[in-house]
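hey team, just a heads up i'm posting the complex here instead of the shared drive bc the drive is being weird again. everything in one block, sequence lines first with there labels, then the predicted structure for the whole assembly after. its two chains so it's a bit long, scroll down
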Amino acid sequence: MADELENAPTQENELPVEPKAEDANTPINIKVVSSTGEEVFFKIKRNTKLSKLQLAYAQKIGKDVGTIRFLYDGERIQEDDTPQSLDMEENDAIDVMVEQVGGRR
Amino acid sequence: MTSQKRPASVALSRYQVHKHRRVASYESHTEPGPHTDDAVDPGIWTKWKDLFRETVSYLMGNQNDSLPRFNFDVPPPTKHSTPKSKCTPRSSTPRRLPPHTNGIAPSNTFASSSTRPSHLPLYLSSSATSSSIANTFATEDEPEYTPRTSRITSQSSSRVPSTSISTVPPDISQDVDSLSRRLRQIDLTTLPPELSRDVQDLSSRLQKMSTSTLTPEVVQNVQDLSCRLPELNFATLSPEHLEEVQDLLRRLRQVNLKGNGVRKPYRGKHIYERRHKVKVKEQRRELFELQKRKGYTSDFSTFEGHLRYAVLLERTNIPPGKPRVPLDQPITEDEEVSHVARAIKRARLSALSPKPARPYSPGLDELNKLNEARKGSLDARLRAKQPRLPDQLPDDELREVEKFKRKRGTVSSAGKEQVNNEHLERLYSPGADGWLNDEIINFYGQLIMDRAELPKYPSVHYFSSFFWPKLTVEGYQKARINRWTKKFDIFKKDYVLLAVNHGGVHWTSAAINFKRKRVESYDSMGYTRPEVFKHLRNYLDLEHKDKKKKPFDFTDWTNFSMEDYPQQENGYDCGVFTCATLEAIARGEERFIFTQANMKYIRNKMILEIGRAKLSDPR
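-- predicted structure starts here --
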């Protein structure tokens, strides 16, 4: 599964690739790093909502999006966050974490 | 001497005839006044005198011919000294004396008189001297207690030893017999009434002496004889006779009744001496038993030796000023008796004194009760200082809580955190469904950080619960944790708070306390978390190097975990404990007043706070 995910980003560049510019439509490469250190690369436009990326990632790994958390520099990524709003740069990483629960040892 | 004896036998027949005159003579004896006539026939007096001489001589064991002849005209000046000198050889060699040197017939001729029982009561004189004899014989029934020869002690001084009955030669007994016989032959009619009574009395006494073996009574009779002689009516005697009789008496007193020549030092016995000795022995035994109870292990004879030693030792303890007894002197009975009496008193005091109380050793129940009481008092003192959390929210807030529970979808949002109704359910679901997840925890952490913006609260940063797996699994560099603090300086905060999830089942809280320079970990299950200390210290160092370009100074920094941190009592409240702890730390609290009993209240309060997206004011 990890291998599939690794190869996935290159095939999944459905988002339009645009020349490098400060334009909001300029695509940006973002990697999603799981808690086990596996990385999945995405190329998205700067003004595309990251929730689209989250859904795509959840689909890829076959999990409900409600059970995984996406963090950028330690902060939760919200519904309407975009790479632009978060000042994301090329090859920035999004951490994906699984739900944590606890009640007793 | 034989020639002097013969005329006396003539008067034998008349003895019985005048027997009845004794009463009259006794009466006249009490009143010596009328007997002033010198009617004593010289011949009779001579006989009477000779009889005494014989008595004295054989009792003293002297040879007849060595006895001084009575010379009534010229009293011999050396008379009283002679028997003394004769007395000593006689007493030293008693057996050498021929049994019948004075020609008295052998004792078998008086068989009839010798069969008389020697213990028959004797005639007792009414005079004062004889009454002491009466005392003597009155106690004859208990021979052991009878003091012997008490009158000899008083009359003859200690020079004359007491009689040792077993050593008196039997021939004296025979002589006594013959003497009594001859006394009976005296014609009492020729005597003055007093004398005749005395002679009768004397003869009867001597008869009672006449046993084959000398008994104590014999000795006593002889003594009695000597003491009765003064009862003679001296008024009727001529001065020469008087002197003669007095001399006789003196010599009689010196009679050595003891035959073996060994003079034993006289030791007078008290009439209760034997009883006393028994008592002393009993006392010793009693003392022995008392000491045995106190742990004395040896036998009685050893104890007696010990007792003697103790008495001896006591002499060394005589207080100064009192007469000291040299240690080489034998122990007197008085010393021993008084010592034993005192020792018994002491031993009884200690033996009968109340026993010391047994050392207090409480049973398990008592110990538990004591511990409970101690704990209770400690708790009471500790809790008295602390405000107690309420058991439940006020009614209006409870209604608000119910409103939040009914909400669907996203219930609340704060900062970048959101909580929807599914996550919030965990706060009011019972049992294992009540486990809190990262959404609730991190939302609550966000609320804590929001409140910390207020100036009255310490500055706080809360790291999301994902900080811990990032740091520990991937590491500071790979997880790019340095970017987590790109917007602020962690080292300027008062507290850095973390919720740490252990293995997906347990929440604990951790803090970096810059105020007190402590790395803190709080586990509601009671574990000290060394890995928390290790990783947080490592983080501090790397973060400092990253931001400040030099290692972190850990001087004075300690790891801290609280011993009396509140503990959860079920399997699902650890997340609530964690949130409550972080909230309290963010207020600068160092004590946690919540307990398991407050969990229901805290859960409702958290729903309220999450629903309001604002922490309540601490109560």
